[in-house]
Amino acid sequence: MSTTQQNPAGPSSVTNLEQARERRARALLDRRDELARRWAQALSHNRPDADDLAYEIAVVEEGISKADPSTFDALFREWIVADASRLHEPGTMTGSCVMCDVARGGVA
Ligand SMILES: [Zn+2]
After folding, report:
1. C-alpha of residue 37 to centroid of ligand 1, in Å
2. Structural domain spans, the chain
3. pLDDT of res. 1
4. pTM
């Protein structure tokens, strides 16, 4: 007879819960960063999907705020500065913008 059944309320489940929470927060932060990069490029090039991306960012930020309020509070101002620094005039070629690279013919 096997006695290897684990207690789901054991000490390790608390750790697993915490790790799952951190993984989820990390995934949301990565998702926000990717959306913000795409949003800045879309807005800089006057593309209509900028509004949709801004909405998606707001949804992800709300998720971060609920999952990890202290991280949200710590990063919110950094996001604003980082997002603003990613914006550029459409005619200005930058090395970090996919749409600028395409316009420049660099991706060929
Ligand atoms: Zn660009």
Report:
1. 11
2. 16-103
3. 52
4. 0.78
